[in-house]
Protein backbone atom coordinates (compact mmCIF):
# COMPACT_ATOMS: atom_id res chain seq x y z
CA UNK A 1 0.00 0.00 0.00
CA UNK A 2 1.24 3.47 -0.83
CA UNK A 3 2.16 5.83 1.95
CA UNK A 4 -0.70 8.05 3.04
CA UNK A 5 -0.43 11.84 3.10
CA UNK A 6 0.11 13.05 6.65
CA UNK A 7 -1.26 16.49 7.50
CA UNK A 8 0.28 17.77 10.72
CA UNK A 9 -1.87 20.40 12.40
CA UNK A 10 -2.62 21.79 15.84
CA UNK A 11 -6.08 22.25 17.31
CA UNK A 12 -4.78 24.59 20.01
CA UNK A 13 -2.95 27.27 18.06
CA UNK A 14 -3.58 30.83 19.22
CA UNK A 15 -2.12 32.07 15.93
CA UNK A 16 -4.98 33.03 13.60
CA UNK A 17 -2.75 32.78 10.51
CA UNK A 18 -1.86 29.16 11.31
CA UNK A 19 -5.54 28.33 11.85
CA UNK A 20 -6.42 29.84 8.45
CA UNK A 21 -3.60 27.94 6.75
CA UNK A 22 -4.71 24.65 8.32
CA UNK A 23 -8.33 25.25 7.27
CA UNK A 24 -7.28 26.02 3.70
CA UNK A 25 -5.15 22.87 3.40
CA UNK A 26 -7.93 20.72 4.84
CA UNK A 27 -10.56 22.31 2.60
CA UNK A 28 -8.47 21.75 -0.56
CA UNK A 29 -7.54 18.15 0.32
CA UNK A 30 -11.19 17.37 1.09
CA UNK A 31 -12.51 19.08 -2.05
CA UNK A 32 -10.10 17.09 -4.22
CA UNK A 33 -11.01 13.90 -2.33
CA UNK A 34 -7.38 13.26 -1.42
CA UNK A 35 -6.98 10.59 1.23
CA UNK A 36 -4.95 11.91 4.14
CA UNK A 37 -4.36 11.43 7.83
CA UNK A 38 -4.82 14.52 9.98
CA UNK A 39 -2.41 14.44 12.89
CA UNK A 40 -3.06 16.83 15.77
CA UNK A 41 0.36 17.48 17.31
CA UNK A 42 -1.16 19.37 20.26
CA UNK A 43 -2.27 16.09 21.78
CA UNK A 44 1.18 14.53 21.98
CA UNK A 45 4.79 15.62 22.37
CA UNK A 46 5.74 12.44 20.47
CA UNK A 47 3.71 13.53 17.42
CA UNK A 48 5.21 17.04 17.53
CA UNK A 49 8.70 15.52 17.62
CA UNK A 50 7.81 13.15 14.75
CA UNK A 51 6.71 16.13 12.61
CA UNK A 52 9.86 18.09 13.43
CA UNK A 53 12.07 15.07 12.75
CA UNK A 54 10.50 14.55 9.31
CA UNK A 55 10.90 18.28 8.59
CA UNK A 56 14.49 18.35 9.83
CA UNK A 57 13.63 21.43 11.90
CA UNK A 58 13.64 21.26 15.72
CA UNK A 59 11.48 24.40 15.92
CA UNK A 60 9.05 23.62 13.08
CA UNK A 61 5.39 24.52 13.47
CA UNK A 62 2.29 23.21 11.70
CA UNK A 63 0.76 23.01 9.21
CA UNK A 64 3.15 20.56 7.56
CA UNK A 65 2.68 17.77 5.05
CA UNK A 66 4.52 14.50 4.60
CA UNK A 67 4.02 11.30 2.66
CA UNK A 68 5.01 8.48 4.92
CA UNK A 69 8.36 9.63 6.27
CA UNK A 70 9.11 11.88 3.29
CA UNK A 71 8.72 15.58 4.03
CA UNK A 72 6.69 17.43 1.39
CA UNK A 73 6.52 20.97 2.76
CA UNK A 74 4.52 23.49 4.71
CA UNK A 75 1.73 25.87 3.81
CA UNK A 76 3.75 28.08 1.45
CA UNK A 77 4.89 25.13 -0.66
CA UNK A 78 1.36 23.65 -0.63
CA UNK A 79 -0.21 26.96 -1.62
CA UNK A 80 2.30 27.47 -4.45
CA UNK A 81 1.58 23.96 -5.76
CA UNK A 82 -2.16 24.70 -5.76
CA UNK A 83 -1.63 28.03 -7.55
CA UNK A 84 0.58 26.36 -10.16
CA UNK A 85 -1.85 23.45 -10.57
CA UNK A 86 0.83 21.01 -9.43
CA UNK A 87 -0.80 19.75 -6.24
CA UNK A 88 -0.72 16.08 -7.22
CA UNK A 89 2.99 16.33 -8.07
CA UNK A 90 3.68 18.17 -4.80
CA UNK A 91 1.87 15.44 -2.86
CA UNK A 92 3.78 12.78 -4.87
CA UNK A 93 0.50 11.26 -6.04
CA UNK A 94 1.40 11.39 -9.73
From TrEMBL:
Query: Which InterPro entries does the UniProt entry name for this protein?
Result: Glut_rich_SH3-bd, SH3BGR, Thioredoxin-like_sf
As recorded in UniProt, coiled-coil segments are none
Question: GO terms for CC?
Answer: cytoplasm
Q: Please give the family membership noted in the entry.
A: Belongs to the SH3BGR family.
Q: What is this protein called?
A: SH3 domain-binding glutamic acid-rich-like protein
Q: Which organism is it from?
A: Pocillopora meandrina
